[in-house]
Amino acid sequence: MVETSDIRVVRCGGSKVNLTPPIISNDSRFVLCASGDLVKVYSTRTEEWLHSLQGHTNQVTGITLNPANHLQVYSCSVDGTVKLWDFIDGILIKTFVIGCPLFAIYVSEKHEGVLFLHVSMATDSKNECFQLVSVHLPKSAEQEVEAKEMSAVSSHISKNPSCTAFGRGVRVHFFFFYFSLKATDKKGAKNAFTCIACHPTDDCIATGHEDGKIRLWRNFIHKKEYTYSTQHWHHNAVNTLCFTPEGTHLLSGGIESVLVQWQYGADNRKEFLPRLGGSILHISASSDGQLFCTSHSDNKITVIESSFKVCGVIQGLVKGDAVLTDLMIDPRSKALVLNGKPGHLQFYSLLRDKHLYNLDIVQQEYIYEAGLDQFEVVKAAFDIKGSWLATVEERGKKSSDLEFFLKLWAFDERTQSFVLNTTITAAHTDRIISMCFSSSEETTMLVTAAEDSQFKAWCQGADDQNFWSCDFVGSYHKLNPTNCSFSADSSLLAVSFQEVITIWSPDTWEMLTTLCQPPGVIRDLCFGRLSCSKYLLGTTTKNLLCCWNLLTCELEWSTSVDVSKLQPDPFSENVAAFSYQSKHTDLFVFKPSEPRPLFTNKNVCSEKVHRAVFVPREEPLNSCDESTQWLNRSQLYFLTQNMDLLTFSTATEEDRMLSSSKQLVIDDSVAVTPFYLLLGKHRQQQQKLNTQSHPVADKPQQPQGSVTIKELLHTPAHVLPAASVLCSMFVNSFLISNTGEMDSEKEEEDSEEEMEACDSQQELRAQGSVDEVTPKLSKAQERELKRVRKTDFSWMAGLIDSKP
């Protein structure tokens, strides 16, 4: 089937879940968090993603529960709209169009029908300023309505939502404008405000500061008579504060990744919950005080019981300051693999948008302290079968302080994870800049290239434990290598040395030829695949993309383009090239045999793209359109400098995914449990057996009342009418009306009369006396005749047949 559809850049799974504070439902069953342009709903008990609230067209910047209905939630977005959702059933109730980008949202129980929003101020200053405005929500029956009634509450406030809080009818924001503290005192302490929280019952406000201190302010209603007390444990800035609903405790968090619980009213009495992961950015508490939620810098939400026990972890795609490894696909699990939390590789399922597990590479405790030089994973590569993983970890920015290790990991079938097999402490004398595995399934070989002017080939030993050792060392005129790549069948190895590309035979380690036509140092290097395997592609620092024919050892074609990332598709002949120019990135998809691009997408994003990967599809697409054929077998994912994971998708593919997401697994948004999987498979098998054993039998018709029952059971209870109103409707749906029964009897009598008339006329035609008048029967005789007609006389036929 031919699909003609435009290709669009869409934000895929792995969006940040730590951008805004998460919220907990009143019954502590659900956790809601903003994730890209979605609001995701998770279960606090199973940690499973239930469903998403989808409707915004840009980043969701804030969510808050509706104080008038605890089953509804407000969300605001940069797209300039506020949406009201029923988060239990995932239904969009109403959209309020504000008309300007929104950056935070707040509600107050004392201000019904009013929302408080962070919006940007139009100023001449280069620094962006924000103001707090109140918006009165209009009452309208329409689903989308424009909110025009807006008034400014305060100007020049902080963009950080932690710097605004509501409590006991008092509005507090960015405390620097109300309480005066010198930025630094005589002892050099940093007193700048970082976050605030209002006590739910007392006239008390807690503030966090850059020096790690927490101050509790009182008597602030009276001018210049306020007082404050100081509590101190954090050694760095306090990121977030939160009072429990009863106000008995104050929760604080910072870079130490320790949740601190201060007892309110008691001097420095506190409890600790350490080693929670990344630094704590936000803290939330449920309305009943039974659960706490902390969001962390490693894109994680931790669910904590009031007894200070971790009961769940919702882990998103870990996004640090930069991804040092390439984007890789695990050949076994088809998971996306890249840098995770410090010293780890993370395995992330793109299909389920779920973090699978972390693999500890460094195997050292990470110390969260700014400026401390620690080991980081900088290179990683899988072999073609996923049986081996090679990693490089290093520390030391200067060559004199450089320390690195090359590690080989073997996949363990028993534990279904990778186990350290070999550690090489002196693989090279300088930094490793490139490495790759051979593409052959028969023999596994690893090649590393380093800044010590050498490349080395590593192979498994002949002993039983399969430890790795160096098999060959190669160099070329003492030039530093820049990249290395194997051909599709592993018969050739290409190693670039500055402006020269050398071609080697891995069987004999003979240098076959050199390619040195293009000017500039070689940056990326890759071979063609399938029918284009005879071509070698390379990009240079002189903004050239070149293609060589290895059969003739000549330059096939070249073009002037600044390629920031060259990514071949291992499942087709296609190659993707990302080009950065005029402050935006363009995408070109082409085959090495044809310099004309198959697909071009201008202005994919505004940042440079240095990481990309093709992911194989579980079910290939059937597109015959030339511009979309390159997406049939695999899907292209890429990572921007802002750590946004994006992909390319067709419109028909998005519509199909949207319709499949709306199909109910059990009942609407119920999570799939192991019990359901067992029971559901049993039912499906039973239905299949019944269908095979009775192929002719028709499926019984459902009663008409089933439609009413289905609507009644699938409609949320809080939007249904009173039970007294539904009772008569529900009972009547089971009853059959008298008029219907009388009509059916009348139709039956009419049909019998027509049959009798036909029979009599046929008899008359047979006797040749059609014109004779038949005597008319009385009504009593007609009823008696009908009774006789309905009598079963088949038993008489049996008697007659049995007589001799």
Automatic annotation (TrEMBL):
<feature type="compositionally biased region" description="Acidic residues">
    <location>
        <begin position="742"/>
        <end position="757"/>
    </location>
</feature>
<feature type="region of interest" description="Disordered">
    <location>
        <begin position="741"/>
        <end position="779"/>
    </location>
</feature>
<feature type="repeat" description="WD">
    <location>
        <begin position="53"/>
        <end position="95"/>
    </location>
</feature>
<feature type="repeat" description="WD">
    <location>
        <begin position="186"/>
        <end position="217"/>
    </location>
</feature>
<dbReference type="GO" id="GO:0003723">
    <property type="term" value="F:RNA binding"/>
</dbReference>
<dbReference type="InterPro" id="IPR015943">
    <property type="entry name" value="WD40/YVTN_repeat-like_dom_sf"/>
</dbReference>
<dbReference type="GO" id="GO:0006364">
    <property type="term" value="P:rRNA processing"/>
</dbReference>
<keyword id="KW-0804">Transcription</keyword>
<dbReference type="InterPro" id="IPR053826">
    <property type="entry name" value="WDR75"/>
</dbReference>
<dbReference type="InterPro" id="IPR036322">
    <property type="entry name" value="WD40_repeat_dom_sf"/>
</dbReference>
<feature type="repeat" description="WD">
    <location>
        <begin position="231"/>
        <end position="263"/>
    </location>
</feature>
<dbReference type="GO" id="GO:0045943">
    <property type="term" value="P:positive regulation of transcription by RNA polymerase I"/>
</dbReference>
<keyword id="KW-0698">rRNA processing</keyword>
<keyword id="KW-0853">WD repeat</keyword>
<keyword id="KW-0539">Nucleus</keyword>
<feature type="repeat" description="WD">
    <location>
        <begin position="425"/>
        <end position="458"/>
    </location>
</feature>
<dbReference type="InterPro" id="IPR057644">
    <property type="entry name" value="Beta-prop_WDR75_2nd"/>
</dbReference>
<dbReference type="Pfam" id="PF23769">
    <property type="entry name" value="Beta-prop_WDR75_2nd"/>
</dbReference>
<dbReference type="GO" id="GO:0032040">
    <property type="term" value="C:small-subunit processome"/>
</dbReference>
<dbReference type="GO" id="GO:2000234">
    <property type="term" value="P:positive regulation of rRNA processing"/>
</dbReference>
<protein>
    <submittedName>
        <fullName>WD repeat domain 75</fullName>
    </submittedName>
</protein>
<keyword id="KW-0677">Repeat</keyword>
<dbReference type="Pfam" id="PF23869">
    <property type="entry name" value="Beta-prop_WDR75_1st"/>
</dbReference>
<feature type="domain" description="WD repeat-containing protein 75 second beta-propeller">
    <location>
        <begin position="327"/>
        <end position="643"/>
    </location>
</feature>
<keyword id="KW-0690">Ribosome biogenesis</keyword>
<dbReference type="InterPro" id="IPR011047">
    <property type="entry name" value="Quinoprotein_ADH-like_sf"/>
</dbReference>
<dbReference type="InterPro" id="IPR001680">
    <property type="entry name" value="WD40_rpt"/>
</dbReference>
